[in-house]
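Support reply, case 0932

Customer input (verbatim):
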Amino acid sequence: MSTALPDTALRDEAEGTLRALAGDHAKLRDDQWTAIHALVVERRRALVVQRTGWGKSAVYFVATRLLRERGAGPTVIVSPLLALMRNQIDAAARAGIRAHTINSANTDDWDRVFAEVEAGAVDVLLVSPERLNNPDFRDQVLPKLAAGAGLVVVDEAHCISDWGHDFRPDYRRLRTLLADLPPGIPVLATTATANARVTADVAEQLAADDTLVLRGVLERDSLHLAVVRLPSAEQRIAWLAERLDELPGSGIVYTLTVAAAHEIASYLTDRGYAVAAYSGQTEPAERLQAERDLQDNKLKALIATSALGMGFDKPDLGFIVHVGAPQSPVAYYQQIGRAGRGVDRAEVILLPGPEDRDIWAYFASLAFPPEPVVRATLAELEAAGRPLSTGALEPRVDLNRSRLEMMLKVLDVDGAVRRVKGGWTATGQDWAYDRERYARVAAERTREQQAMLDYIAATGCREEFLRRQLDDPAAAPCGRCDNCTGRHWAADVNEQSAAQARDRLRRPGVDVAPRRMWPTGVKDDLGVGGRIAASALAEPGRALGRLTDIGWGNRLRQVLAESAPDDEITPDMFDAVVKVLSAWDWEQRPSAVVSVGSRTRPRLVTSLAHRISEIGRLPYLGELVPLGEPAPRRHNSAQRLRSVWHTFAVPEEVTAALQQNPGPVLLVDDRIETGWTMTVAARLLREAGATAVLPLVLAVPN
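Our regenerated output:
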C-alpha cells in the first residue's frame, strides 16, 4: 500500500467532479476520498460498505473521471437492475460522463454501443450480471472489455455471496473475471447491506491480498421505525387505507407476493388513492412509467414486491410500509433504506402477519437442489454427448425451469458444466456437492427468520436491533423509533373500513387458463407433442382463490395443508364458490358435474361436487377413478405429465351418461398446481363424450 500523502490537486479535481454530480455545495467524505485515492493513485481493490444514500456511486463516477483524464479505459460497472442503470446513466450525464448500458432490454443497440466503446466515446459501460453467463458475451466481448477497462465496479456486491440476502448465481462468475484481470486495473465493490460474514466473503472474492475495506456507520437519522401488529389481513390493509393520507409525501408499500401487491393496489384504488402495482411480472414499459409517476409525485405509493429494491432512487421518499415481513433483517434494512435520503423525517412501518412464515417456507423450498438431483442432471448432460438447452434438459430432471437455470449457473461457476452455443455441456471435471456449506446457508436463513420475528417482538430500539444484525459496531439506541419514544401507532381500525377490506379480500374468483401446449420431451413415451388438440382441450376454468392471496389464501392454506384433516366443504367456503359460479360467463351452461378422485382430500372434493350438483340442479355423474400407487410430486411439466398420464380412468357409468347426454362437464378438484392433472382429466372426459370441460377448483398457486 502506498504511504504517499493525499494529492491536494487531485482532491480538488475530484471535488469539482463531485459538485457537477451532486450540486455546488457537495464535498467529499473522508472515506469517499480514501476509496477514490486507492483506486486512482494506488490502483487497488476496494470494498465499500456504506448506508444507502452515503454516496457510493459518487466514488466510482469521480474515480472514472479522474482515470479517464489520465488516459485510462472506460469503467465497466456490473449492475443488477435496469432501474438502477437508468438512474446511474442520468447521474453520470450530469457530470459530463458518457454512460451506456448493455442488457437484455436493449439488444438492438449493442453493436452501436460496442463501436462507441472501441472508439473511446464511452466513459462508463453498465452490464447486467446475466450477460456474464452469455457464451458470446463471455468469450468474445468480456475479455476485451476487461483488458481495456480503466476501472471495474461491482455494484450491490452482497449478491456475490450466498450468505447475502439477495444471492444471484450470475454474480458468482465475477470471481473468475476479477482473478483474470490484467495487473493494475483497480476494482471497486459496493453495497449497503452486508454483515461481517458477507463483507469477509466479498472481500475474499475480490481476489486480492490487500483489499481495502471501508465500512461505515449505518445509522439513518431520518428513519422513524415502528411495528403495528394486527390480527388479520383485512385489518392490516384497512389500517393502511385509513393511515395512508397521514404518511408524508409519497412512498412504497412492500408486499411479499405478486398477488398481494395487486390485491392491495386494487383496494387502495377503490378507496380513491393514486397507487400502482409493481412486480417482476409487470411489463417493462409499465414498470418504467410507474417509477416515473412516483418520482414525479403523481402517485401516493407504489405497491411493490422486492422487484422494486436496489434499483430505485428517490431521495424524498417519505415512507416505507411493509405489509408482511421480509425473511431477513438485512433485506428489511436494505428496503427501508430507500426512504428518507433527502428529507428530515420518513416513516417506516412494518405490518407483519402470521402468513409470513408460510411464504418464507415457500422461498426456502427454492434453495439449491439436493445432491441426487444435481448428479442426475450431470449424468444427463454427460450421456447426451452434445449441448442440451434448458428446455431440452428440463423433461429429464425433476426441477422446474427457474431452479434448473439457477443450479446450472452455479455448476458453471464451479466448473462442472459450461454454457455454450446450443445450451449446456458437462465438462467432466470432478465436482463435490458442498453439503456442509448448503446446510450452513440453510441454517443461516433459519436464524435470519427468527431474528426477524425477534425484531417484531422487540421492546428495545428497533434501529439498533437492525444495525446489530448488520454487525455495525456503532449501533446504539436511535431515540426515534416507536420503542425509544414510547409513541406507537394506534392499532385500531374502523369497523366499516375492516368490512370493506374483508369484502375486497374475500371477493372470490380467479381465472384459470388451460394448458394449450404439451411439454417438450414427452412425445417418445407418451405420444403427444406440440399444440393440444382442440378436441382434447379444457376450457378456461375458475378457482376460489390463490394460495398466495392475503384474503382467501390464508383460509385455503389452512384447509389444504398436509397436516389438515380431510373435512367436508365449509358453508362459508361453499357460499364463496357459488359466487364464483354465478359470475362465470360460460358460453354454455354445464349439463353435469364430475369430480377428480382424490387420495388426499376425498371428503372435501366429493362434498364440494355434491353440493354444486344439488344447488345447480345438475346430475353428479361420479368421479374419475385414481389408479395405482400415488404419483410422487414432480416439479416440472414433463415429469408431472408423465406421473399423472396413467393415473385416472373414466368409469363405465360416467362414459355411458356422457354418450347418452353429451354436453359440457363441470370438473371439480381441490387445487391446480402445475395444471397437468386437470389437462389429462379433461382429455379423458372429452374422449368419453363431453363436449367441453370446465375446471373448477378451490385454489391455484399464484
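We compared this against your earlier run and they match. Two observations from our side: Residues 435-457 form the longest helix (23 residues). DSSP finds 27 helices and 22 strands in the chain. Please reopen the case if you see a mismatch on your end.
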